[in-house]
Design goal:
Blueprint lengths: L1 H30 L11 H9 L5 H31 L4 H6 L7 H11 L8 H7 L4 E3 L8 E4 L5 H17 L1 H12 L4 H19 L1 H4 L3
Helix pairs in contact: 1-3, 1-5, 5-7, 6-9, 7-8, 7-9, 8-9
């Protein structure tokens, strides 16, 4: 588990670096008030960015460096994902996770690395709290209210589960129905995704128990 966790976290570091490089490029374009002709990071947009002569010499050089760094990071991310796929080949829990709607390889690797065994938790509620997708209570007297999600827990795991919840809300009938019901009660999108992530992990806890005993 420690080795898998190192690989998963290293991949996330590379993803964060690539995102930061993209943000720096967008910041340079804003500084020069350049209006991009197409949606950012499409193939046509990248062609325009690489060939545009509207930038001063030094800014042009900086953008070229950032683009080269992004290409290098993409290759490193691909290499790390190949290594993760090889390392987890035959893992029964990863294979079971990949059978669930809304779970792709990266989500499965992250869940396996950060949660480990599902049977080490006493309940789905305890698992959801570990994943930091449980609501934080802010009730006082007769006032009942939530104050967002709990602050403890693994933030990267929570971010991965929230992303998965957004996919489930769009494509899975069970969770899209829940999302529609919550939106009908006036809940914002962030609250809807957090609620789905919470209930999904509590449900997943029971689904993974047969596999957890042999994983």
């Amino acid at each position: 588990m420690r080795e898998l966790r190192r690989l998963v976290r290293y991949r996330q570091q590379l993803v964060n670096e690539a995102r930061n490089a993209k943000l720096r490029i967008r910041s340079l374009l804003r500084e020069h008030r350049l209006r991009t002709p197409q949606r950012a990071w499409t193939r046509g947009w990248l062609t325009w960015l690489k060939t545009s002569n509207e930038l001063p010499e030094q800014s042009r050089w900086l953008i070229d460096q950032h683009l080269a760094n992004i290409d290098r990071l993409r290759q490193a991310i691909g290499g790390t994902e190949d290594r993760l796929a090889t390392f987890t080949a035959g893992d029964p829990l990863v294979e079971r996770l990949l059978q669930e709607p809304g779970i792709g390889p990266v989500t499965a690797w992250t869940i396996r690395a950060e949660i480990g065994r599902f049977d080490r938790f006493r309940s789905g509620k305890q698992l959801a709290r570990f994943c930091a997708v449980s609501p934080r209570n802010a009730s006082s007297g007769c006032r009942q209210a939530d104050a967002g999600l709990i602050q403890a827990g693994n933030r990267q795991l929570r971010a991965t589960l929230i992303e998965a919840a957004h996919r489930l809300a769009r494509y899975h009938p069970r969770w899209s129905a829940l999302a529609a019901a919550l939106r009908g009660r006036g809940k914002p999108g962030s609250v809807v995704a957090a609620a789905i992530a919470n209930r999904w992990m509590r449900w997943l806890y029971h689904q993974m128990q047969p596999v957890a005993r042999v994983a």
